[in-house]
Design goal:
single chain; about 550 residues; alpha+beta; Glutamine Phosphoribosylpyrophosphate, subunit 1, domain 1; Penicillin G acylase, beta-roll domain; 3 domains; 7-stranded antiparallel β-sheet; 4-stranded antiparallel β-sheet; 13 helices; about 20% helix; about 20% strand; globular
């Protein structure tokens, strides 16, 4: 967001585009809600009678994932009915047993017992449960054999979850103080929240319950469930990262690390898969552009520039490659002559063959990083790809694998030099659940469109590194730009896919071409802005 002192109009601007897995139907719905308490417009989740991201008549907000670690696994010691824990005078506590009924297609319902410790459910019991339910139909690799039962402590399983109350309070807030107080009700997921208001205030805050771990417990490894490594409460909301009206006149958050090592509480969780490249690129744009307009912010949202290319270690690797044929050498020079005529600046634009070559080259390098598998990549198979550039580039430098690097680059040129990024490779794919799994029916429900970007660009285009065509599987799930110079006349938003989940509806996918083209819809609360209205009336 940008303060009025840095904008063309003199009023604040706020933009947001949370990056999530692409889905058909869309994750979000565009909604305009009116009630006696006021009006609000933006994006909501199906079934939620409030706006999760958007604006009212006084203020606007955006949300992205904070990335902090709010889960821990504990190894339990004991027997089937009791476990050891220091909080009990006897040193033992009983498992709480909760029974659930599982409906079986073309079969009889089955009742399963769920054990819960002081931390939460014993998640490793699910393996035995699945085996009992599915028998020989369960693949062997899905059944684990842990040395001890593992119990999950997770903020999202807290019994007193007031997150919905927080969202309602955000919708009704009229000032930064009211909005800040609403964040204190937020439990999960912990989020980075950006804020702007008509009075000129801009702000950032982290919300949600963030655990305070015992000394020596980082959360990265399984801990003994004896009480020695229990959480020591939660970070007080007033101590969570926050800033109001910074002197520089703008704020950027792009799933990057938001605190330094001097911050008083260890937050954990940040793998920083994008190495801060997106935040750094947005910072470049914010520092280099003044004054800013809504059109400027739209260009920032759609920016496809990857700073991975400019990373000094990547340039060192590219500069060291030798023994290439004429065509491959031309691509290498294009990637190293960043500012020269004919050079490439790292823009992962739709149609770019250089972008295809570069990303295929980095994928080959990422296989060198070690055995750590990107668990979100269902297409990776047995090959391990590590998408964190810090780890990948450090490993390549340390190994000094010149011959491998040269071969990898030559092969990337051979494969990618005739493939257009965003079209032949990296097409944005919106899969229907569950019809995507239904063979021939997938072609009726799935959708795909050209899309640029990568993991490391403001216009995010995350993809499956293990897939042959690098399918673009996540990115901007919603875009909004709020202009306080004229909230109804200049504010815009867009949702991929459409407003309907019905395959036969024209509104199933009518917004997808607009989203792909970087276009928006008016974010107006004027009565004539919508072609259809849904009125909810309470039952008498």
């Amino acid at each position: 967001m940008v303060a009025g002192a840095r904008t063309v109009s003199g009023f604040p601007l706020l933009a947001n585009d949370p990056h999530l897995t692409f889905r058909a139907p869309s994750i979000w719905n565009l909604v305009h809600l009116e009630s006696p308490d006021g009006s609000v417009i933006g994006a909501s989740l199906p079934g939620v009678p409030a706006v999760v991201i958007g604006r009212n008549e006084y203020l606007a907000w955006g949300i992205t994932n904070s990335g902090v670690d709010v889960q821990d696994l504990y190894a339990m010691e004991g027997n089937a009915t009791h476990y050891k824990h220091s909080s009990s005078p006897t040193g033992w506590l009983p498992y709480r047993i909760r029974r659930e009924t599982i409906q079986i297609k073309r079969g009889h319902p089955r009742e399963v017992a769920v054990r819960e410790s002081i931390y939460g459910p014993v998640v490793t019991d699910t393996d035995a449960t699945a085996k009992a339910l599915l028998g020989d139909d369960l693949k062997a690799e899905y059944v684990a054999a842990p040395a001890a039962p593992l119990s999950l402590r997770w903020v999202s399983l807290e019994r007193n979850d007031t997150t919905v109350m927080a969202i309602f309070a955000m919708n009704k807030a009229k000032t930064w103080e009211e909005f800040r107080d609403a964040q204190r009700l937020f439990v999960a997921p912990s989020s980075n929240v950006v804020f702007a208001a008509r009075d000129g205030t801009i702000a950032y805050t982290m919300n949600g319950k963030v655990p305070i771990r015992s000394r020596g417990h980082t959360g990265y490894m399984v801990a003994p469930g004896t009480g020695a490594y229990d959480w020591q409460g939660f970070i007080p909301p007033k101590h969570l990262p926050s800033v109001v009206n910074p002197e520089r006149g703008w704020l950027v958050t792009a799933n990057n690390r938001v605190v330094s090592d001097a911050y008083g509480y260890p937050l954990g969780g940040w793998r920083d898969d994008v190495s801060g490249y997106r935040a750094k690129r947005l910072t470049e744009l914010a520092n280099g552009t003044a004054p800013v307009s809504a059109a400027t912010m739209a260009a920032w949202q759609l920016d496809d520039t990857s700073l991975l290319l400019r990373d000094p270690r990547m340039q060192k690797i590219l500069g060291s490659i030798r023994n290439l044929d004429e065509r491959a050498e031309a691509f290498r020079r294009r990637m190293t002559n960043l500012d020269a005529a004919g050079g490439w600046d790292g823009t992962m634009a739709v149609g770019s063959e250089t972008a295809s070559v570069f990303q295929l080259f980095f994928r080959a390098l990422s296989a060198l990083a070690g055995p750590t598998l990107d668990l979100a990549d269902r297409d990776a198979g047995e090959q391990a790809y590590f998408r964190n550039p810090q780890v990948v580039l450090d490993r390549v430098e340390a190994e000094g694998v010149d011959t491998f690097v040269e071969t990898a680059f030559a092969e990337a040129v051979a494969e990618g030099s005739r493939k257009r990024w965003g079209r032949d490779l990296h097409t944005a794919t919106f899969e229907h659940a569950p019809l995507h799994q239904a063979g021939p029916l997938a072609c009726l429900a799935d959708r795909s469109v050209p899309h640029g970007g990568s993991f490391y660009t403001p216009n995010a285009g995350g993809f499956s590194m293990g897939s042959e065509k690098l399918w673009n599987t996540y990115g901007p799930s919603y875009r909004q730009i709020v202009d306080f110079a004229d909230l109804n006349g200049r504010s815009v938003f867009i949702n991929p896919m459409g407003q309907s989940g019905c395959l036969g509806s024209k509104k199933y996918d009518n917004l997808l071409p607009l989203w792909a083209a970087g276009e928006y819809l008016p974010m107006s609360m004027a009565r004539n802005a919508s072609s259809e209205q849904l009125v909810l009336k309470p039952v008498a």
